[in-house]
Specification:
The chain is of the alpha/beta class. It has two domains: 91 residues, Roll (SH3 type barrels), CATH 2.30.30; 292 residues, SGNH hydrolase (Rossmann fold), CATH 3.40.50. Helices cover 29% and strands 20% of the residues. Strands 8-7-10-5-13-14-15 form a seven-stranded mixed sheet, sandwiched between helices. The protein has a four-stranded antiparallel sheet with strand order 1-2-3-4. A hairpin with a 2-residue loop joins strand 11 and strand 12. Helix 6 packs parallel to helix 12 and helix 10 packs across helix 11. The longest helix is centred in the last third of the chain and has 20 residues. The radius of gyration is 25 Å and the shape is globular. The N terminus is likely disordered.
């Protein structure tokens, strides 16, 4: 076996240490958490360091040395005892590339799930926050003949998981469905606080299609938390913190917490007027209120993790040239700010395009579509979003109509888009 020069430089570094320095290094490394003495396969050399990555499939190992450098090598360069230790640890993701917290709670692919049974409540609730405007709120028909969810599931036999063995609406005991919205004269109204089921909902958004794939894939309890309201634009109502004013066609567009009269603002919430980012503030505050009172919204839950975000929006921005022109910049900032505000830097983000928007189209709608495709982690242009952001192209999934007309209320559009978004999130979590 050809020796790895870097590996043996690390070993020489260990041998060259004076006794006092070696003792100090041992104390430092022990404080780092996973420090251990590693031995070469022939037993001739040793060195100390932290395990920072290990892939059982490829046998690749990463160990951080005391000098801050990371040594990467194959496991066969180590002793049998070290290899046994690695196998006990399982897969260890490198720093900066760790999967979302939920990924450690995923069920094996293909594992049968009994949705009538509660999840393991010893595990933290995996929270997925749904944001956007009217179509995320949900205006799909539950009943009412053709185009309704009832017809799709009970007559056309689509989405079989929505029905139980008796042909009635199923109730999922491992996924909680919560929907809140800014109230009239009060900060928040609660519209849904129930297990994932159709009864109790007058209309529907993509939550049923989202919730079932996540419930099937995640062994921990899951909460679908929707906090949004209709007729809101990313360029004004949902403008994220940190957004600065900009000029467009000779007019200054307000930055976060700015107003037309005072585009810059002073960082404080303007009182008694609508301001840029007000809906962002309200929707995020309401979602946090739910999580602060977790047991009310997920019975017996003690802790949670924000594992991901879903976003379906863009109709209102399409009616404003300035907002359409700057949609991509605002969307990138929106993704980053959500992770910051919920202290979840590894949370995944899935968005859906407008169903009527086709690739290659022009106008404001085309600009919004291009911006939404640009952030996709697979085919977009932002390397930082690789493996943690996904864009669902909704046009092939839509049954017709536009976002502004709420797709005619056709439940199949909402289900198809929701399923695609849910599956995209599962793929990101398994990445």
């Amino acid at each position: 076996m050809k020796p790895d020069p870097f590996f043996f430089r690390a070993c020489r570094f260990r041998r060259a240490l004076p006794l006092a320095a070696g003792s100090l290094l041992a104390v430092i490394l022990l404080g780092m958490g996973q420090a251990r003495t590693w031995t070469s396969s022939d037993g001739a050399k040793t060195f100390e360091g932290d395990l920072v990555s290990y892939d059982p499939e490829t046998g690749s190992v990463g160990v951080k040395l005391a000098n801050g450098k990371t040594l990467n090598f194959k496991q066969e360069k180590l002793s049998a005892a070290d290899i046994d230790f690695l196998k006990e640890q399982g897969k260890v993701a490198p720093a900066g590339q760790a999967p979302a917290k939920a990924s450690g709670l995923l069920a094996p692919e293909g594992k049968a799930v009994d949705m009538t049974q509660p999840a393991d409540m010893s595990k933290p609730v995996q929270v997925f926050i749904l944001l956007g405007q009217s179509n995320m709120v949900g205006l799909g028909k539950i009943t009412g003949g053709e185009g309704s969810l009832e017809t799709a599931a009970k007559t056309k036999k689509l989405y079989p998981y929505l029905l139980n063995e008796a042909g009635e609406w199923s109730e999922r005991k491992d996924v909680r469905n919560v929907r809140v919205m800014v109230g009239k004269g009060k900060p928040m109204d609660v519209f849904n606080n129930q297990w994932m089921t159709v009864p109790g909902s007058k209309t529907m958004g993509p939550e049923f299609g989202i919730g079932h794939p996540l419930g099937d894939a995640i062994e921990a309890p899951v909460m679908i938390l929707k906090s949004c309201i209709g007729n809101r634009s990313l360029g004004w109502d949902l403008l994220p913190p940190g957004s600065e004013p900009y000029e467009f066609n000779g007019k200054t567009e307000p930055g976060y917490r700015g107003t037309p009269e005072n585009p810059k603002g002073n960082g404080e919430k303007p009182e008694g007027v609508w301001y840029a980012g007000k809906q962002y503030d309200d929707d995020i505050a309401n979602a946090k209120s739910v999580l602060a009172d977790l047991g009310t919204y997920y019975p017996d839950a003690k802790k949670h993790e924000v594992a991901g975000f879903f976003f379906w929006q863009g109709e209102k921005d399409g009616g404003n040239a300035a907002h359409a022109e700057h949609y991509e910049r605002n969307l990138v900032a929106f993704i980053k700010q959500l992770r910051k505000d919920f202290e979840s830097p590894e949370a995944k983000f899935v968005l859906a395009t407008l169903g009527e928007a086709t690739k290659g189209s022009g106008g404001n709608g085309g600009k919004i579509l291009e911006a939404q495709l640009a952030v996709d982690g697979k085919d977009g242009k932002y390397p930082e979003f690789k493996g943690n952001v996904a864009t669902v192209y909704s046009n092939p999934l839509s049954k017709g109509g536009s976002g502004n007309s709420h797709y005619g209320g056709n439940a199949e559009t909402y289900m198809n888009v929701g399923e695609a978004m849910g599956k995209a999130m599962v793929e990101l979590l398994r990445n």
